[in-house]
C-alpha cells in the first residue's frame, strides 16, 4: 500500500492487533539442513508481495456492496482476507459461507468489477522496483507464482510494465492445481531452467511457504505484505522474514556464488 495508506492499514488489519510487520524483522536465517546452493532465481507471490493490490480489490468489493444496497466497509475489515482470493473477499464483504447459494453469482460479479479496474490504484510496494533492478543487475532471474487467474494476472503486470521483465508467470489457472500445492513452484523452476534448490520464493501467506518447501526451494516471508498478527508468520517454518523488499538483496548476496559476487562487485 502506498505510504499514506500504510499506517492506517497496519492499524486496521489486525482490528486492534498490531501487525508483526511493524516490529523489527529478524535477519533471514537459513533453515537447518537446507542445501547451500547458489540462488539463481527469485519467485514472487503477486498480491501482497510483488504488488499492493489491496486498494483495487477493496474498491471492487465495496462497489459490489453498494450495488446490493449496502454501505462500503472500511479497508481494515478486509485486512485478514485480502490476500486470500475472491471467495474470501466475498465471505468478508457479505458475511456468508463458502457454500452459500449466493456465493457464485457474487464472486462472478466481483471479478467483473475488479477486472475493470485491476490496475487503477495497484502499485509495486515501496522498494520493490529497486529490488527488481538489483536482482537483474546480479544476473538473476525472477518470476511470479500466483493463485490469481491468468486473465487478471497478465493485464495487471502488463499495465505496470512488469510482464516483459519477469522471466516466467505461473498463474492460478496455469496448472490444474494452485499453491499450497508445490506443482506451480516446481513448474516455475522448470520454466526458468533452475533446480528448486537454486530458487527462493517470497510470499505473504503460509501457502507460499508450504508450496516452496514441498517443491524444495528456499522460502522467505514478506512481512511488508498483508500479514496480521493473527497470522503468526514466525510459526510458518520459513527460512527467513523480510521486513522490506530491499532486505532481500543482502540475503541473495549471502547465497551468491563467486561469479555472482564478481558481478555485484563490478556493479558497485
What does the secondary structure layout of this molecule look like, with pairings?
Elements (H helix, E strand, L loop, with lengths): L2 H11 L27 E4 L6 E2 L1 H14 L18 H9 L8 H14 L6 E2 L3 H10 L3 E5 L4 H10 L8 E3 L12 H10 L6 E5 L2 H10 L2 E5 L17 E3 L5 H7 L3 H10 L1
Parallel strand pairs: 1-4, 1-6, 4-5, 6-7, 7-8
Antiparallel strand pairs: 2-3
The gist of it:
With 268 residues, this protein is of the alpha/beta class. It has helices spanning 3-13, 54-67, 86-94, 103-116, 128-137, 150-159, 183-192, 206-215, 248-254, 258-267, and strands at residues 41-44, 51-52, 123-124, 141-145, 168-170, 199-203, 218-222, 240-242.
CATH topology of the largest domain: Rossmann fold
What does the radius of gyration come to? 18 Å
* Global outline: globular
SSE order, one letter for each helix or strand: HEEHHHEHEHEHEHEEHH
CATH-scheme architecture of the largest domain: 3-Layer(aba) Sandwich
Biggest sheet record: 6 strands, parallel
**Category from helices, strands and their pairing:** alpha/beta
In the CATH scheme, the class of the largest domain would be Alpha Beta
What is the CATH homologous superfamily assignment of the largest domain? HAD superfamily/HAD-like
Strand order of the largest sheet: 5-4-1-6-7-8
**How many domain units?**
2
End-to-end distance, in Å?
A: 30 Å
Number of H/I helices: 10
Which regions have little confidence, pLDDT < 50, spanning 5+ residues? 3-12, 14-36, 258-265
User: What is the beta-strand fraction?
Assistant: 5-15%
**pLDDT averaged over residues:** 87
Count of DSSP strands: 8
Residue share in helix: 25-40%
